[in-house]
Amino acid sequence: MITKTSLVYVLLCLASFSAARHVNISVDASDVIGTLPPVARFFGADEPNQATYPDGESLIHDLGDLGPHQTYFRTHNLLTTCDPPDNIEPKRLKWGCTNAYTQDDSGNPIYNWTIIDKIFDTYLANNVKPYVQASFMPKALSTNPEPYTLYFDAESEYNQIYVGWSYPPTSWQKWGELIYRWAMHCVERYGKDEVESWYWEVWNEPNIPYWNGTQTQYFTLYDYAVSGILKALPSATVGGPEVAGGPDGDWLGLFLDHTINGQNNATGGKGAPLDFISFHAKGSPTYINATNSVPGHLQMNMSAELTNVKDAFAVISNYTTLNTLPVFIGEDDPDSCAACLSPEVGYRNGLIFPSYTAAVFTREIDLAMKYNINFTGALTWAFQFEDHPYFDNFRVLATNGIHKPILNIFRMFGKMQSKRLQTSSTGQYPLDSVVTGSIRGESDVGVLASADETGNTLAVMIWNYHDDGLPKQDAQVSFNVTSAFPGCSEADVTHYRIDQSHSNAYSTWLAMGSLQDPTKAQYAQLKAAGQLQMLYEPMSIKVEDGGFGLQFDLPIHATSLLILEGRQG
């Protein structure tokens, strides 16, 4: 039955229905077009030690609860040396260290897994698995160790980060032995079955100065690292190369060539093991400057990110012996630097980030279908900075333990089902249009629909996205489902929403006056506002011949998730 609260909401929506852009959205529950890959369960950060601090560990726990699919976490700096060795400062931006490898005065290796263990223990205790990044270079192994430590603030020149950790090793054998010892330690500590469930990748963005070596040296680095991992655990899942999207477009193809036909620098054999393929894709937001007649505003660029994806998928699709492997977008974000600040990053606190993510992940799934790619993960490079001001415009999922709206889009993705359904929307941009031109005319009112294996539960995500960070027209959605719930006369409806007044701790914080010292009661209010919330109380609607409909408004940059469950009346 429709409750009084729900009825009032529906009547209000109907009363205003003619005032905004009308969009028809339909879902055919009988038309399964494929499996919906659970890509939105991967996260990462530059700062590995953050996960072991109170707010970081709390967020790791929340990521582990996104389910039902397994969450993974990828981080830089797992092999970085603390410099000096007793100077561990994990709260610095773009920095972390573990002292996993040092040497004695005679150059003999000293292995110390204490800090890495603490990091991985934190993940595993909270139902998160490592997506292990075998990098960066320990100081004692670096061919160019000075300077080694970096000090980065939000407005630093980005190029200053590429210091001693970014160089090739002084000894490939010592590098390979380090990775072997690390993998072997993980097997001994966590068990073969557990470590088999991890992903092991080598380095980060070797086609830009994250790797201050040649391409051939990277192939050698990969060969020795993979050889070490597989020596410790022959059944481990290994891959790469985590190339940055855009520059040096032949890098990915040449790496794939090496794994098939190149000479393995570690074993002397042909090719190199490869169990998954990874690359990065980033958007390119800009700030449109003010003129005498037009105020300046933020403008996102989804096309830049999707072009990275399209180009990489096109390369991978050409390799018939590899193109069925799992493919990860190992960093998949609207901009390129989580720890940087500028006018262009004004989208990070509010509603643009989640609605952008819903729209772009769906297009990436569409591109994977187009190129027949086994798209397995889209990794969001955003986590938590400890001891920073509230809502400080960094690309993070939470601030001082308060969840930003972006985290709720991942809660929505976590509720999607396994079978993708055919949909149509009169307000959704075609795939090719978004890839080439982003969203610059009317807003993109898009839909992603799914069903469970029984067909008795539908999960439908609908968003209203535009690149411009400006007020735009609401969408008035007529939502209709056909061929659903055979034998059922009713359906239970749960409607989740991310908008200005739901699932939005940022708008709540602004209404409090942008406090940096909230009271205990205010903090509790912010915590509650950061959770995924329903638009109205759950209700029941009639199903006739497998069909039913709903009407609701969807403000600009808002996202809805409808969970529909058939039942006998």
From TrEMBL:
Pfam families: Glyco_hydro_39 (PF01229). This is Glycosyl hydrolases family 39 N-terminal catalytic domain-containing protein. It comes from Extremus antarcticus. The keyword Ligase does not apply. Belongs to the glycosyl hydrolase 39 family. The active site is at 205 (proton donor). One of its GO terms (biological process) is carbohydrate metabolic process. Keywords: Glycosidase, Hydrolase, Signal. GO terms for molecular function: hydrolase activity, hydrolyzing O-glycosyl compounds. Residues 97-529 form the Glycosyl hydrolases family 39 N-terminal catalytic domain.
